[in-house]
User: What shape does this take?
Amino acid sequence: MPFNIVCPSSRGLSLALARALLQHTPHPLIATARKDLDGVNARILANLPNILASRVTMLHVDVTGPPPLPPLTSL
Assistant: This one.
């Protein structure tokens, strides 16, 4: 199944990209952040009433140390 992934997706251009992908593609989004996953999820979905929250999967990813991204096959 196709999906979109934005790493990181917490602010700036990456946040805008995550929001645009939800608006312009039918695919689920895997979004990553180092902290405040609930807050990032809320910012991604803010003012997008026609987007189902279930399309967004948030993952904690900190590239400055372990653990790395979990295998995407485990999602």
